Amino acid sequence: MFVTSKSVGEVVRQRLDSLSPAERRLARVLLASYPIAGLESVARFAERAGVSPPTVTRFITKLGFRGYPEFQESLRLEVQARLSSPLARYRDEPKQDSAVNHSFDVSTHNLKATLELLSDRDVKEAVEVLADVRRRVMVLGGRVSAPLARYLAGQLHLLRPGVGLVDSDRSAPAQQLIDMRKTDVLVIFDYRRYQPDTIECARVAAGRGCDVVLFTDPWLSPASAFARQVLVTSVETVGPFDSLVGAMAVVEALVTAVLAKLGSRAEARMQNLERLRAGDVLGGNDSGG
Fold this sequence. Notes:
Layout: H1 8-14, H2 21-32, H3 42-49, H4 53-62, H5 68-83, H6 86-91, H7 99-117, H8 120-131, E1 137-140, H9 146-159, E2 163-165, E3 185-189, H10 196-207, E4 211-216, E5 229-232, H11 245-262, H12 264-282
Parallel strand pairs: 1-2, 1-3, 3-4, 4-5
Helix pairs in contact: 2-3, 2-4, 3-4, 7-11, 8-11, 9-11
């Protein structure tokens, strides 16, 4: 039985470089219609990618599965986990003597699991594009992950110019991307249950040639089909709602890495902002943190 903390999609992404051209076509088809393409018959999956059924078999073997049934069973389990409601997850939680101790134990596990899930290549590429001041950066969060988006946008604004936050409360957030150019970056946070408007924003930005950086869970948001960098974080939790501890840790790590890359340029910007803030305080206009 294939056992890993990573989703099938994440395994595929991390093994792309080791695949043959025909197998990479299968990988792209799977990621573009994840996980539906992999739940179809071998013949249909092969037809989608324009390859032979034996190529599908070799592809599945390279991913670590003993056969197509085992591959599909893993995908079915992912679908079930994707669709599970917060209330159902909460009812499955065993009762604990100390809620705080158990919560901290789970958070510690989240951080360790996130380290295993992250792609070093995607993290390095994300730092590169976020530190490139020639690129404008827009950040978008969802219903639950909006605080992460606000935090990242706010921290990046301290370090570099050209950072904006997409207002996810507006009826059509994709319309706010109308001025994005090919060199720009869209950072998206999308966790189960995935938001159609967030996925649409990823599609629109990718269609304009923008670099899409996606924060998501181990089951992969459908927005991953449009993302160049996918940062997967563990969401194991105490209670009914997914944890964002792992995601926040990665956000903080990215901000630190961007600061180190920008160096004196970021430090000078922060000093200028501090002087402006000091002037507001002395002038009686400070509104607090």
